[in-house]
Structures are given as C-alpha cells and as structure tokens.
Amino acid sequence: MMQTPLTMTQMMKRAEMFFPKKQVVSRTASGIHRFSYKQMAERTRRLADSLTKLGVEKGDRIGTLAWNHHRHLEAYFAIPCMGAVLHTINIRLSPQHICYIINHAEDKVLLVDPDILPLLEKCASELHSVKAFIVMTDDKELPETTLSPIYHYEQLLTESDPNYSFPEDINENDPAGMCYTSATTGNPKGVIYTHRGIVLHSLALGLADGGGISERDVAMPVVPMFHVNAWGIPFAAVWFGTTLVLPGPYFTPKLLAELIETEKVTITAGVPTIWLGLLKELEAGSYDLTSLRAVLCGGSAAPKGMIKTFEQKYNIPFKHAYGMTETSPLALISTLKSYQDKLDPEEKLEIRSKQGTLVPGLELKIIGKDGEVAWDGKEMGELALRGPWIASEYYKDERTQDAFHDGWLYTGDVVTIDEEGFVKIVDRTKDLIKSGGEWISSVDLENALMAHEAVFEAAVVAVPDAQWQERPIACVVLKEGFKGKTTKEDLVEFLKPQFAKWWIPDDILFLEEIPKTSVGKFLKRTLREQVQKEVQK
Ligand code: AMP
C-alpha cells in the first residue's frame, strides 16, 4: 500500500474542493455570521500568509485565547496546515496558569478575543516568547490595550494573499496542536497532537458507532474550542463537509435552544452541566428540537435521570462518551449492541449510562490489585489506554513518568468492565474535582488552607452537585487554641485572593480528625462518604 501522509492539509483541501457551498454559522459578539467553506478556506490561506509575514515558521507554537467562532476555526486549520502548532489555551484558568502555559509552550504569536485582553494584560509583562498579539474582533478599530505589538485580525487578512499555498513537506508525525490539562497539583501539563493523531481521531468521530458525524449533519460543538479542540469536532466537520454551528461567547441555555431550533442542529456536544441547563430551559420555554439526532455528552458522568429525560420526555437521542485531553479525546462511547435492544428499558438505561465500549483503533487494559481485572462489572482497576490518538508523553514535563509506562497511558480513572466490555468509571485516583467541566485541584486548595495559621490539617473532596456535577467541600481540623474561634468565613476570606471564584469550596466542615490510610494518606473515599452524609443532613 502507499504510504501517504495523514495531514490536516488534506482535510482542509477536501472541504475547499468538494464542499465549497457548505456553511459555517458562527455567533460572534455582534450577531450571527455565516460563510461558506470556500470563504473559510480562502481566509484560512490568508491567515497562514499573515502569520508567515509576521515571522511564524515551521514548528512555532501559536496560542489562541478564544471562544467558539469562525475566526478560531480559521486558526484551527491555518496554523497546522502552515506547519506551525495550534496551541489552544483554556481561558478559564487563573492568570498565573495562563502565563505559565504561554511561557512553557513558548508561544510566538497569540490570537485573542477582545473580551479576553484584560485577562492577558494581567500577565503580559511576564510573557517572554510572544512577539505579536492579534485581536479577533468584529469592530473596525482595535480595542484599547496595553499589549504590544498588537494587530487587527481582519486588517491582516485584507493585506494578505488569498492564494497562499500550504507547504507540502509536513510529516504526519509533526505536531499540529497542543493543549494543557490541569494537574493534581502545580502547573498544567501540555499534550501535543500530531497531524496523524488528529486525522485518525477525526475518522473515529465519523464512524457510525463512534461520533457518527457525516456531511448531512449540522454539528454544534458547545464544548469550548479551548478544551481538547472542542473534542475534535471542528476538524472532523470540516473534513466531512458538515455544516458547523459555533455558539460564540457567553451563550445561555436559551441561546443554545434557539440555535438548535433555527439552524436545525442535528448533533451537539458538551459537558453534563450544559445539558442540565438546556433541560431546565426546555421546561420553561417551547422549542422545536426535533432536528437533533444526537446529544454527545462527556467530560463528567452523565446522570441516568438526565439521559432518561432527554430520550423519553423530549425524544432526543443521547450518547454518553468518555475521554481526556491526553486521548484527543474520544476513547469510549456508550452505544448498545444490536442484541441488547431486547433488554427492558431500565437495563438499557443502566448500560447506556456507563462510559461505554472502546472506540475502534484503541486498546485498553484495566489494572487492579492483582493484575488485569475480571470482566464482571465488579472488580475495580485503573484504566490504561493506547492507540494512535493517545498522547505518549507530557510536553517537556517530568510528570510524564507518573502517567506513561510501557507504552500505555494510565488515566487515573478507576473503572469496572462488564461481560460485554462496557466500562464504568467508579472513582478517580487523581485528586481533582470536576466542576462544570473544568478542574479544581483539591491538593492546591488543601495546601492553601494548611498555610493558614489556625489550620492543622485540611482535606478537600468532591460532592455531587445537581448543576455543576461536582463541587469542592473542605474538611478542616483546627489547631488547639483556634477551635471555636476561627470561622468558615475567615478561611473563605483567606482563600479568595488566591483562587478563581469558582474554586472556593461551597462549605467548610470542621472535624476532629481526617480519616487516614495505614501510610498516613488522607482516605478520600471514606471522607467523601462522610461529607456526603453531612451535606445531606
Ligand atoms: P479532561 O482532560 O479535562 O478532558 O478530563 C478528563 C477526565 O474527565 C477523565 O480522566 C475523567 O476523570 C473525566 N471524564 C471524562 N469523561 C467522563 C465521563 N463520561 N464520565 C466520567 N468522567 C469523565
């Protein structure tokens, strides 16, 4: 067989050649913007030309701090197709972490949405590698900013070559993208995506038993384009000629419902918090969402009740999936096998609320106390994955050795697997709390609390939350002499300047002691159960 390289340039060119009339609908700060893949391809070439003129070379990292919109989509293709690396930056992180990420990746240029400029200004003086800032604005004029040198995205495009030709010498194993993921403690860790990985992951998104995305779809990724490439949906959609709907900044459930109705969205994807919000909106208003053939849900466990309401009350098919930044992300998806159709509805729901079976192309093993676990839906072990779209290391980071061994990625997720191969996540070994699709490090909160003069010990655990899936609760043992004197409010005030608002624990419980393992580690599982009982009282 021929050894042709799997590069993103062929994805872009396919949309340009075969689907020039298909549309990208994008909600920006000033309203709904529509253009065709022909226009998108031309602007993508223009952006690549502009970046070349600014001195961007093969292998350079180009950061984006942006919402889901058409300009971000252009960057998604212009940057990798010119041989540079698309580095999407999570704008929900703290300014310190954002600054660390930009410096660690050594981003040469940053493409920034106007509303994110103030965030960037906070750390601009510490950015060592950035040579240019480009503002992706609808306005004719550049906003006022202290960042320099600063360029206007549209102005740059006007002055560029619409016939720029992408280099032919890209190797399929060259880096195309990168994204940082939160760590148990300390700075986020970088993951590099290669051209080959992105192409093969996109194929998986197109499989009927995978994402099932096709040309006939109208796909709306609600998951941010700064979080694992919006689960790779923009890449796959462009390649397949799928109509894309990008919901833009600060959307509400109402706005999403309206977009689904007016644009006749067929497939959409996001974290459970988004879908819980949409369900609430559906109860309040009247919308026609009959166009939807799939709601993809991942990032946190999809509650059974939610799946049931979508399917039984609203007749909207729901697909539960699992993945992580390190896995591009699609790894598991919960689709019933044909012969499981005859099971009763409750049994089917039980299976479909699991994280699912392995996507073709990947391999898994689940390692328990005594080696690989039995496929009995009971024995627990850590999920390990390998395959062509699974990362092999963290970028320039010694924490690689914690998660990658013998050619496998150890996910830190504790799971069971049943007789049919459906995997269910039961716990996490990583001390992270996932609130509304974003991570909170319990270890960082604990360290901060233990730096308070009154605190002897502190452990932070996740409790289930109807809206956010998980929220942090802190358990604190006060030092003798401070008991009865130091209050919850004192500790909250102490934490506030150190963390983003949504990191602050919802409650602080004062305990006599924190349960520990035989080696003195916090017994988080026991503590979690204890706290849950306390919270329910
Ligand atoms: P991230 O790298 O931020 O996308 O987070 C990946 C992690 O989110 C996984 O390791 C899991 O702990 C969690 N996760 C992702 N999908 C699911 C899911 N469907 N159910 C439960 N947890 C999930």
UniProtKB/TrEMBL annotation:
InterPro entries: AMP-bd_C (IPR025110), AMP-bd_C_sf (IPR045851), AMP-dep_synth/lig_dom (IPR000873), ANL_N_sf (IPR042099). It comes from the Bacteria. The keyword Lipid metabolism applies. Keywords: Fatty acid metabolism, Ligase, Lipid metabolism. One of its GO terms (molecular function) is ligase activity. It holds the Pfam family AMP-binding_C. Residues 445-521 form the AMP-binding enzyme C-terminal domain. GO terms for biological process: fatty acid metabolic process. The keyword Lipid metabolism applies. Residues 20-395 form the AMP-dependent synthetase/ligase domain. Belongs to the ATP-dependent AMP-binding enzyme family. This is Fatty-acid--CoA ligase.
